[in-house]
Design goal:
Elements lengths: L1 E2 L5 E2 L2 E3 L2 E3 L4 E6 L4 E7 L3 H20 L2 H17 L1 H12 L3 H22 L7 E4 L4 E9 L2 E5 L5 H14 L3 E5 L6 H13 L6 E3 L4 H9 L6 E5 L2 H11 L5 E5 L4 E5 L5 H13 L9 E7 H16 L19 H16 L3 E4 L21 E4 L6 H4 L6 E7 L2 H8 L4 E2 L1 E5 L3 H10 L4 E4 L14 E2 L2 E2 L4 H7 L1 E9 L1
Parallel strand pairs: 2-6, 9-10, 9-12, 10-11, 12-13, 14-15, 14-20, 15-18, 17-18, 20-21
Antiparallel strand pairs: 1-2, 3-4, 5-6, 7-8, 8-24, 13-23, 16-17, 19-22
Helix pairs in contact: 1-7, 2-4, 2-6, 3-4, 4-5, 9-10
Amino acid sequence: MSKTSGSYLVLENFIGGKFVPCRSHIDSYDPSTGEVYCKVPDSGEEEVEAAVAAATEAFPGWSDRSQEQRAQVLNKLADLIEANLEELAQAESRDQGKTITFARTADIPRAAHNFRFFASSMCHHTTECSELDHMGCLNYTIRCPVGVAGLISPWNLPLYLLTWKIAPAIAAGNTVVAKPSEMTSVTAWMLCKLMQQAGVPPGVVNIVFGTGQRAGNALVSHPEVPLISFTGSTATARLITERSAPYCKKLSLELGGKNPALIFADADLDQCIETTVRSSFSNQGEICLCTSRIYVERSIYSEFLEKFVAAAKKWKTGVPSDPSNNNGALISKEHLQKVRSFIALAKSEGGIIHCGEGVDQLVLPERNANGYFMPATVISGLPDSSRVMQEEIFGPVTCISPFDTEDEAVSKGNGVRYGLSATVWSRDVGKVHRMAKRLQAGLVWTNCWLVRDLNLPFGGMKNSGVGREGGKDSYHFFTEVKSVTIKH
């Protein structure tokens, strides 16, 4: 990375273990000020071609290493991320708009943990064996790395979700061409320097920066990239599926969510409100697992609404570098406008805006006056058919509605095209199990939120994605199974 004559950072692609300058660049903005602070390579087919060639060349040597040898490199990388935690957290906060506190406590520690977890877990999978005595045969399976893995990660948890893909891919013996979001590329670039220090061999991990239309399209359309792991929007996933189809690529697609919280009258209300405020507004609501629809049993609806709005008003939005703030800025001007358009739609449909956008004034320092900030916003009074209740907003906005029966709660919870996660609040163990079984969601939390064990499958149903990753599921996705029969 170098600085231009101005004050911009200028990033370079990382191909074959070296930093490679790019002829053209994209502006990247500091969301808290609205000013350009970084120039990101605008890569296309030429850069992706070079990265795939480097990954292809590195594959035989890397895949021949033992699990333990690969694990040593991943653990060294985890050590280096932890040693540089503060620098990485500062960069993530500035690049993405999230609070420095969230970057310090969630994003960067989790990035290190991803490498450490997969360094260990990949060493502990076993394969199957069966005997066919009557035919004099022994059957067993082996798992082989797939080859060059194409990894496309989003802007909301940049390093966290990039490492969630790179770690299992290379731990399983694949090589990688990764494309982070062009809006949040700085920590991915910093990771490249750490990979050099950790002894990741040249070409094992290549990072190509740029837009989905150019760099992403070139990657998913490349005939020598047999596997794509993507986290992002359902609309982009459709395009990836179409472009991958001619090559029969292996796909894992982790997509959007419109996640419900179902709150029953016997819930622990204090704990429920504290957690549901966090699940609705954490990271500016820019987490695919955030709660955006809250359904409350009618007998406690008024009490819940009053207490929830009061708690939401205490959720502080402001300059990301201030540790007392809960939320920072949204990712971009365009995204802020999109989120605001949903608030305007809710108003036009008779929804009540209890707090947040258009109700509570944000007081910001002068240099942050053009930043992309929105306070925690709570809406009630909308029909389930409203676009505000149906579409992923991906901002600090949640909607609250009452329900009367368990069946109605399930029906409302399942009444969208997404099925990523859900939360259920009740002290009734039987009810909790019934709800968990009936809800169409890849993850169901009861009386908690975002408790994540990396051993467990992660992914969604319906329009929330295809496939699962995590623990054994990542091992299966990033390898191909081969059956071997030996006649004796």
